[in-house]
Amino acid sequence: MTFSRNKSHEMKRRLLLGLCNNFAYVVMLSAAHDILEKQETRNETASTSASLHVDFQVGNSSNSSIYDCNPVSTAAVLLADILPTLFIKVFAPFVIHKMPYGVRVLFCAIMAATSFLLVSFSSAVWMSILGVIFASISSGLGELSFLSLTVFFSRSVLEGWGSGTGAAGLIGAFLYSGLIQAGLSPRITLLIMLVVPIIMFISYFFLLVCPPSLPQWRTKETEYAALVSEDRQQLLDSSDDEEPESSTTEDQPTGPLSFRERLSVIRGLWRFVLPLGVVYLTEYFINQGLMELLFFHNIFLTHAAQYRWYQTLYQLGVLLSRSSLRWLKIRKVWILSVLQMLNAVFLLLAVRYLFLPTVWLVFTFILYEGLLGGAAYVNTFHFISKETEDRHREFSMAAASVGDSLGITVAGLISLPVHTYFCSL
Q: Which residues cross the membrane (predicted)?
C-alpha cells in the first residue's frame, strides 16, 4: 500500500514536471501568429509610406491572397522553436551524462523564464525569435533529461510524464487563447506565464524525491553506474507486473557507455525513431504549414483567434492520447504514421481547393491529428523503456527523443515554401 501511494505521488510530480517543461514551447507556437502580426503592426506604425500603411491596414503585405497570409510563415517560429532542440537531442546524449541533473533543471528554468521576458518586451522580429530559441533550449534539454530521469523510478512514471507533456499543450494553448480572448495583450499574457518556470523549479528541487544514485549536483561516473543498475532492478522487481525484461543487469559491465556502445544503441533505435519522426513531420506540417491557411471569412472568430483555437484543439487531442497508456498500448507505431500522412494529404487538398464548408470540420480533423501524435509519442517511449537493456535504457530514452524533433524540423522547412506558394495565389 505504501509503495503504491509513493508511486502515485511520483507520477503526479512527473506530470507536473512534464507540464512545466513543455509549457514555454507550446505557448510560443500558439503565439506564433501574434508574434509575427505584432511586428508587422509596429512596422506599420513606424512607416512613413502611405501606400505601405494602406497594405498593413488590410492585414499584411500579402493581402491580395485569398488566404489572408502573414508575410512570414508561422513555420519561421516553428523552426526557431525546434532547431535548438534538435541540435541538443543529436549531440547531448553523448556528453550530457557529465552534467548533473540538478544543473540541467536549473538551467532549463532560467531559459524558460528568459524566453517569456524576451518575447513579451521584444521590439523587433529578431528579438522575438531569440526568445523562442531560448524556449526551445529549455524544452529540448528538459525533455531529454526528464526522459532519462524516468529510468531511476518505476516505469509507471513514464505515463505521468506523457500526461504532463500533453497537459502542457492543452493548458498552455488554452490559457494563452483564453487570456487573449478575454482582452489581455500578448505581453501581459506572457508575463503572467512566468510563474511556470518557478513551479518547475519548486517541483523538481522541493517535491520530487530522488533516489541516492541520482547524480544531482556532481557526476559520479564510476560508483554511479552500479548503484543505478541496482536501484533500477529493485524498482522493476517490485513494481512492474508486466512480462519480465528481455535483459538483465547480471554479468554486464558497469560505468558509462563507450562511444561505440552508444552508436550501437542508436542503430537499434531506428525502428522506433523513424515512425515517430514521420508522425511528427506530417502533424507539424499541418500545424505550421496549413493551419494558418485554413481560414474562414465572416465567422465569429477572427483569423488569429481561429489559429489559436486550432492549436488548442490539437493539444487537447495530444493530452487525451498521451494519457491513454494504461488502457491502450500500440506496438505498431507505423500504423499511426500512415494515418497521420493521410490526414496531412487531406488537409493539404482542403487548403488548395477550399472544399471544407465549415470551421467545425477543421476542428474535428485537428483534434484527430493530436490524438495520433500523442499516441505515437507515449507508445514509442513506453516500448523503448520496456524492450531496451537495463544498461542502455537511460541513453536510449535520451537518444530516441531526436525522432520527434527531426520530424518537426523537416516539417518547418517544407512549410515555408508551401506558405509562399499558397500566399502567392
A: 15-33, 75-96, 103-126, 132-153, 165-184, 190-210, 333-355, 361-383, 395-416
Sign of CA dihedral 309, 180, 292, 108: negative
CB 35 within 8 A of CB 131: no
Report pLDDT for 70. Answer: 67
Read off the pLDDT of residues 277-336 as tens digits, 9 standing for 90 and up: 999 999 989 988 888 888 888 888 888 788 888 888 998 898 899 888 888 888 888 999
Q: Alpha-carbon Rg of the chain, whole angstroms?
A: 22
More confident call, 228 vs 293: 293
* Contact call for residues 396 and 144 (beta carbons, < 8 A): no
Amino acid of residue 346: F
H or E stretch covering 113:
helix 101-120
Measured between its terminal Cα atoms, the distance across the chain in Å is 64
List domains and CATH numbers for the chain: 12-45+57-218+259-423 (1.20.1250.20)
Axis crossing angle, helix 2-30 with helix 221-239, rounded to the nearest 10: 110
Question: Distance of alpha carbon 25 from its chain centroid, rounded?
Answer: 6
Identify the residue whose cell numbers are 525513431: 273
The 8 Å CB, 24+ separation contacts for 39-44 are 39/122, 39/124, 39/125, 39/128, 40/70, 40/71, 42/123
- 349 pLDDT tier (thresholds 50, 70, 90): very high
Answer whether residue 372 shows pLDDT above 90: yes
Cell of 396: 536510449
The string of pLDDT tens digits covering residues 25-40 is: 888 877 766 766 665 5
Record the cell numbers describing residue 382, joined without a space.
513506453
Listed in sequence order, the residues at least 6 apart from 317 whose beta carbon sits closer than 8 Å to its beta carbon are 366, 367, 368, 369, 370, 371, 372, 373, 374
What CA–CA distance (Å, rounded) separates 266 from 262?
6
Residues 6+ apart with CB under 8 A from 62: 69, 70, 71, 423, 424
Q: Of 65, 47, 75, give the one whose Cα is nearest residue 56.
A: 47
Q: Is the dihedral of CA 265, 271, 276, 277 positive or negative?
A: positive
Mean pLDDT of 95-118: 89
C-alpha cell at 360: 467545425
Number of H helices, E strands in the chain: 16, 0
